[in-house]
């Protein structure tokens, strides 16, 4: 039998932050980390939905050490406020899970194309601002959730905010490629400092992501079709969260690895996932890092390595 949530080791004494933990993959991830002893922060954009998610978690895991804190990845001021207010000196696990998929054209509070801004830049800024706590933990992990949809498009560093041309799915794919390039460059920079940077994807898992884009675009037929396909073909959030949980907790996870479902990348137990060749481009990863620092104003301060 393959790896399951029962194989998660004891996480007592560890602190985790899970973004987008109010529903779907993030909620399952936060719940299972808490079930195995971690102190978990549910980082959620909406207070009402986040509080409801925390209540569900505490009902399912009554002895959980969990709390909800507000985080809007579409607003760098909110990202900074979240990082500044986090009351822990050490952070052992950061799960960059929150995301948006195939939305109509829109902008974040800071003027970024929304999918690139939330899926990549928000998490880039958050990770950088939490870096001192990750360094203090020695052995921390940063797990960034990407998607096989990254294969549809490489990043366009000449037009990261899609000023000239916008297609919802291409913008989504570029943001997911950015997740993998970020994972790669963070692994290169952080490995000497005992931080593991890895990525994961859920395969085809039933979440609200598939229906949200059509709903916001007013395409109700596509929204109904997305919900029908979810019921017929998609795995459950519990199954979709397993690759994320494996990357976050399994003992032999490697730097810059990409974990997904083992059966054609869609279903099955967690295992190594295929990734597009351009996500292994070290020069592109460095260029994306420089662009991300410039756009967010967040610079990663690693101590001198001896």
Automatic annotation (TrEMBL):
Gene3D superfamilies: NAD(P)-binding Rossmann-like Domain. The keyword Aminoacyl-tRNA synthetase does not apply. Keywords: Oxidoreductase. InterPro entries: NAD(P)-bd_dom_sf, SDR_fam. It comes from the Bacteria. CDD domains: retinol-DH_like_SDR_c_like. The keyword Transmembrane helix does not apply. It holds the Pfam family adh_short. Belongs to the short-chain dehydrogenases/reductases (SDR) family. This is Oxidoreductase.
